Each structure stands twice: as structure tokens, then as C-alpha cells.
Amino acid sequence: MTKVEYKHTEIAVKKKLGQNFLTDRNIIRKIVRSAQLDPDDNVVEIGPGFGALTREICNVCQNVTAVEKDPALASFIRSEFPSVNLVEGDILKVDFQELAANGQLKVMGNIPYSITSPILFKLLENRRHIISETLMMQHEVALRLAARPGTKEYGILAVQLQTFCDVRYLFKVGKKVFRPRPEVDSAVVGITPRSTALDRYEHEFRTFVRTAFRQRRKTLQNNLRENYNLSGISSVDLQRRAESLSVDEFQLLFTELHAGS
């Protein structure tokens, strides 16, 4: 069992919580600079761990909330950072409307590899409460988020996130700067939610995208015909594969299908 000790606290690393602690202060400062924080920002940090990023955030902002599931680490943050509003619990169960009571949020964190997608969709569903997200995640997932059409990384995650947010791949973070060292590299991504004409149809659109990518090697015609009326479609050639469509083309096709339903 791997153990990590810092100051007066030792924890047994829990793989299921994705606990890899960032130790490089230069990378930490770079993440905080990327978030473009102002002193009066309302910041939420996901999984503060031993507070390496928390400390740098607190050097800029006074209104900081940290969400930590591990009881030992929650106790550490409570003791080490008394000014931080600590929420001891699961980020997937947090009420973002409540967190945003004092203003919209800037969300930051080194998010656990094992639940990256659920966290991203939790944030997507609560984007009306969020100004920006500066998140470190597995490098492969970061590439998928920011992927462009026609690449192997481009798929459901890219289309769904890029439809409702501006997504930017910021920089890579090597595995050597973590304790314990993970098996893969990480990367920092910037996500900025925005309003779109599809906001009111978000659930339907996300279902549509999953259906379009159901079998990547098949055409749109083959993937969509069981669930949608494709007669008279003119916005997109249905003999193309989903991976070739831009985000804008997905929106056009969905709008045409929705208008004809």
C-alpha cells in the first residue's frame, strides 16, 4: 500500500479516488495564472489533496471552497486552511447552485482520472453557475476534449463539450511531478461555458450525438435511421461518418431533424 505524508498527516493512497498529488510549484503557479483569477472571484477547487494548489489560489482570492471526499485530507485542509470553506463530500453530489450563492464560480482542480467524464458532465449540467473551469486531467482525455473533426480523438466528448463550451488545451504536465507517480501524463484544459440556441434541448442533443457515434465506422444514415426520420435532410450528407462532422454541422443536423420531428 502506497502512503504519502505531508506535515502532520499521512494517508494511504486510494487508487479509486485517483489520488496523485502535484508537487511542482512552478506547474501549480502556471495553473493559477491560466485561471486568470481576480481577488473577488468565487473559486471552487475539486479535490485539494494536501492543498498545494489551494495555497496558491488563496494567495489571490479570499472566497475559496474546497471539495474533498477523503476524510483524512478534509481534516488536513480544515486545519491548514481555516479560511477555506471546506465541503467534505463527493463532487458529483455537490449542489452548485448553493456554491454559487455568492456569485458565479471559477472551478479548478486536479480531477481524479477514474471519474473525469462524470465530473465534466456534472460541470456541464451546472454551467449556468460557472464562469470558467481550469482542470488538470489525464492527457489522453484532454486531447479528446479539444479534438478536431477527422482525428482519432474526436468523438462524443468533444462534440458535447464543444457545443456548450469553449474548450482549450493549455499545456501538458509530465508524470514525474506527482506523488505517487501515475502511469500516464496529464494536461491542463481551460473550459468556458457559453449560451447557445441548443441550451433548451441539451438532453436531446447529447442523446443525438451518442447515437451518431454509436458505431464509428458506420455512416450517419446507418447510425441514425432507427431513431430519427431522415427523409428530406439537406444540411449534411448522411453518407458521411460522424467523426467527419464539425461541431457546427452537428448542430445544423440536429436542428433540421428536430424541426422535422
UniProtKB/TrEMBL annotation:
Xref: CDD domains = AdoMet_MTases
**What positions does the entry give for S-adenosyl-L-methionine binding?**
N20, L22, G47, E68, D90, N110
Pfam families in the record: RrnaAD
Q: Which domain of life is it from?
A: Bacteria
Q: Per its UniProt record, what InterPro entries does this chain match? A: KsgA/Erm, rRNA_Ade_diMease-like_C, rRNA_Ade_Mease_Trfase_CS, rRNA_Ade_methylase_Trfase_N, rRNA_adenine_dimethylase, SAM-dependent_MTases_sf
Single Gene Ontology MF annotation? 16S rRNA (adenine(1518)-N(6)/adenine(1519)-N(6))-dimethyltransferase activity
Question: What is its EC class?
Answer: transferase
Task: Tell me where it resides.
Answer: Cytoplasm
Which PANTHER family does the record cross-reference, listed alphabetically? DIMETHYLADENOSINE TRANSFERASE (PTHR11727), DIMETHYLADENOSINE TRANSFERASE-RELATED (PTHR11727:SF7)
Q: What is this protein called?
A: Ribosomal RNA small subunit methyltransferase A
Task: Give the source lineage, highest ranks first.
Answer: Bacteria, Pseudomonadati, Chlorobiota, Chlorobiia, Chlorobiales
Question: Which gene underlies this protein?
Answer: rsmA
